[in-house]
């Protein structure tokens, strides 16, 4: 099961099996993403960046060191933590590249101890040294109050991010617990609810020696959905070295069984493209969508999307899943009414139908998928832009080519997500 935990954490970065990216710094020092590799003939949507060495998060690890955890257990937890965060990730914040991960450490039993605030650890060596010197023996206390540990994590995050420090970085708290105890002021639910509602992802690992159901049930309530794990197979840690995280992910954790990738998200006002619009936990892509509800010609919409976000472009529909997703985005936006109509990033240019890409990148020829309405495409000498149009009273839309300068409609924009390949300030 520890393998699972590691995979879960790694998934924060490894939302996909894509590694074919390179990136570079533009003149202002921000990281510019390379859009995505072009696989032969088949267009695919961008996957979340998957490079652990470019993980950018603020993390607090909370470890129960009450007697119930056992010396052996706490040592294996130490190994697990460094395996997950000590494999190339830039620890600390003293790098010219803003993509780094700060890691705070809290231990707790009857009381909590802040071992490392968010600024103490500044290298992988620091991480190893601190983790193994602190997490090698348990305390001689039987009490284990989760609320104390989670509460200390909350203050580590508050103090480490005061005055807007790294406010654009996602926060993750990982709790390793051997017991679920607490009533009244030691009830862990209020503090964990507070954290989660402020946007922190809370992951729990039950150190479960004898199938303690109340522990598992309790932690499932505390954790963010899909983020509660158990440590049944604690001795698997050693095997982790050989685990090919990415390939496991691509085969095992593709939809529907996957977690929210903390380090793959969209800016405000943008909706992350996922396998199913209505299922928050469906597989997420490294793609953000935004409906623009000011009527514009196709050509104006093309330029507007490029200006709405750096490297933005009029949205693509490489397959039916993306087509359906964009339609759900429109349906869920009260500015739209039936019949639904919006421009998409397809146009007739250079003798063929081509999809928009970030400015400066070659267009992508349409490949495979199409969903023209009956009797379309019409003569494209003058009708080179494409929009989605609800064709009948059925709640579906299909493609129609239109004059790119005269037909004003709403439109859908697209941009790459913020992830290990793309830092968003
Ligand atoms: C460390 O990262 C490399 C490449 O990023 C990967 O091949 C290797 O399996 C990872 N090792 C562990 C223990 O996660
Ligand atoms: C639909 O729109 C509402 C209101 O803007 C929003 O709160 C909700 O998250 C949207 N649904 C999805 C699945 O994005």
From TrEMBL:
One BP annotation, GO: innate immune response
Q: Where is the VWFA domain?
A: 58-249
Pfam families cross-referenced by the UniProt entry: VWA (PF00092)
Which UniProt keywords are listed? Signal
SMART domains, per database record: CLECT, VWA
Q: Which PROSITE patterns match?
A: C_TYPE_LECTIN_2, VWFA
According to the record, the signal peptide region is 1-17
Q: Cite the C-type lectin domain residue spans from the record.
A: 284-414
Domain of life of the native organism: Eukaryota
Keyword Signal set for record? yes
PANTHER family in the record, alphabetically?
C-TYPE LECTIN (PTHR31024), C-TYPE LECTIN-RELATED (PTHR31024:SF3)
Q: What is this protein called?
A: C-type LECtin
User: Per the UniProt entry, what species is this protein from, by scientific name?
Assistant: Caenorhabditis brenneri (Nematode worm)
């Amino acid at each position: 099961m520890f393998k699972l935990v590691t995979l879960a954490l790694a998934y924060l970065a490894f939302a996909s099996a894509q590694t074919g990216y390179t990136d570079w710094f533009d003149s202002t020092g921000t990281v510019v993403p390379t859009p995505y590799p072009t696989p032969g003939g088949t267009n695919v949507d961008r996957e979340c960046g998957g490079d652990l060495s470019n993980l950018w998060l603020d993390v607090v690890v909370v470890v129960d060191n009450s007697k119930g955890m056992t010396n052996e257990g706490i040592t294996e937890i130490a190994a697990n933590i460094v395996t997950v965060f000590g494999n190339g990730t830039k620890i600390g914040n003293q790098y010219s590249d803003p993509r780094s991960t700060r890691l705070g450490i809290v231990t707790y039993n009857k009381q909590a101890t802040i071992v490392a605030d968010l600024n103490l650890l500044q290298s992988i060596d620091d991480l190893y040294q601190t983790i193994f010197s602190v997490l090698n023996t348990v305390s001689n206390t039987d009490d284990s109050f989760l609320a104390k540990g989670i509460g200390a994590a909350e203050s580590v995050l508050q103090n480490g991010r005061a005055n807007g420090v790294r406010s654009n970085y996602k926060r993750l708290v990982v709790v390793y617990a051997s017991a679920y105890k607490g009533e009244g002021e030691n009830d862990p639910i209020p503090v964990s609810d507070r954290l989660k509602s402020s946007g922190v992802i809370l992951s729990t690992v039950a150190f479960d020696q004898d199938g303690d159901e109340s522990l598992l049930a309790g932690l499932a309530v505390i954790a963010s959905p899909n983020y509660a794990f158990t440590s049944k197979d604690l001795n698997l840690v050693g095997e982790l070295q050989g685990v090919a995280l990415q390939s496991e992910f691509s085969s095992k954790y593709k939809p529907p069984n996957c977690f929210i990738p903390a380090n793959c998200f969209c800016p405000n006002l943008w909706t992350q493209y996922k396998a199913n619009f209505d299922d928050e936990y469906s597989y997420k892509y490294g793609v953000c969508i935004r409906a623009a509800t000011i009527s514009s010609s196709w050509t104006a919409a093309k330029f507007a999307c490029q200006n709405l976000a750096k490297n933005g472009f009029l949205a693509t529909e490489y397959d039916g899943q993306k087509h359906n997703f964009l339609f759900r985005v429109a349906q869920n936006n009260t500015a739209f009414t039936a019949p639904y109509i919006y421009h998409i990033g397809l146009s007739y240019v250079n003798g063929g139908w081509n999809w928009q890409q970030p400015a400066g990148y070659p267009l992508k020829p349409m490949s495979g998928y199409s969903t023209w309405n009956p009797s379309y495409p019409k003569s494209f000498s003058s009708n080179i832009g494409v929009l989605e149009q609800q064709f009948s009273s059925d709640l579906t839309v299909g493609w129609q080519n239109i004059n790119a300068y005269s037909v004003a409609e709403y439109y859908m924009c697209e941009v790459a997500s913020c992830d290990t390949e793309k830092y968003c300030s």
